[in-house]
Amino acid sequence: MSAPPGTAPGPPARAVDLPPPADRGATVIPDKVVARIATQAARAAQSRRAALPPDRSGSTAPSASAAIRTGSVRLHLSLDLPYPTDIPHVCERIQHDVAERVAQLTGLHVAEVTLTIRRLVSATHANRGRVR
Hints:
37% helix
C-alpha cells in the first residue's frame, strides 16, 4: 500500500510518545563557549562605552573566563580602558552590557561580572598606528 499524495511514508510522529521536556535532557553550554561570548560582548561594550576602538588581537583586546554552576554563570573580564575616563561609570556600564548580552545569547542567569582593568591607555597610544 502506498502513501497518499503529499504525505511522507512511514509512521506518523506523535507528540504523545515523547517524554516530557524535563526528562529529555538538557542543553549544556561549556564554560569556554560562554567565555567567548563574554569576550565578544566585552569588546563591543568597550568600544561603545569606553570609546576604545575594537582590537581583536592586540594588547587592548578583552579576555574573559566563565564558571557555570546550576544554570548561573560568573564572569571575569580583563580589559583596558582609555585615559582619562570615568572608571566607575564605564565599568558599571560594561558589566551591565556584558551580563545582558550573555544572558540573552545563552539563557543563563549571570550572577556576577567582575572586571580587572589591565591598564589605562592614553588617547595617543590608542590612536597610534604602525610606524612605517
